[in-house]
């Protein structure tokens, strides 16, 4: 089975490490970025199979990352999961309208994270 690469874009180092550890337990290859601009660089360099991205970050927020990814044909089909502490419906709606595949609200447990990731990847594979 081919290795699945997931990019985690999260400015909170502890949160980023926790997400990475959970995903590594399922043998996903994890790459990380601490902010949106670096995250976009990683998307273009590494072409990950999935992006998990925090909404509120310095330099470029998650909405900006998603907008830029959707505007480039090389990255527009990469599944995208928003990760946020903001559970406000307006943000969820905005993210989904912009093309996010899923939305995870912090705090979450590892099982919920894995279920969303696996569902997102499965849908993407079946569509592709």
TrEMBL record:
The lineage of its organism: Bacteria, Pseudomonadati, Bacteroidota, Cytophagia, Cytophagales. SUPFAM superfamilies: CheY-like. This is Response regulator transcription factor. PANTHER family: RESPONSE REGULATORY DOMAIN-CONTAINING PROTEIN, STRESS RESPONSE REGULATOR PROTEIN 1. Gene3D superfamilies: 3.40.50.2300. Residues 5-121 form the Response regulatory domain. Keywords: Phosphoprotein. The modification 4-aspartylphosphate is found at residue 54. PROSITE patterns: RESPONSE_REGULATORY. InterPro entries: Bact_response_regulator, CheY-like_superfamily, Sig_transdc_resp-reg_receiver.
């Amino acid at each position: 089975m081919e290795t699945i690469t997931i990019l985690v874009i999260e400015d909170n180092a502890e949160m980023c490490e926790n997400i990475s550890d959970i995903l590594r337990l399922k043998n996903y290859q994890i790459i990380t970025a601490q902010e949106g601009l670096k995250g976009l660089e990683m998307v273009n360099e590494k072409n990950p199979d999935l992006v998990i991205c925090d909404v509120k970050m310095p330099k470029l927020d998650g909405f900006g990352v998603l907008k830029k990814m959707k505007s480039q044909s090389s990255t527009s089909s990469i599944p995208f999961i928003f990760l946020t502490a903001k559970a406000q419906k307006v943000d969820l709606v905005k993210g989904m309208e912009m093309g996010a595949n899923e939305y995870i609200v912090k705090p979450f447990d590892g099982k919920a994270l894995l279920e969303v990731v696996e569902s997102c990847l499965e849908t993407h594979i079946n569509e592709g």
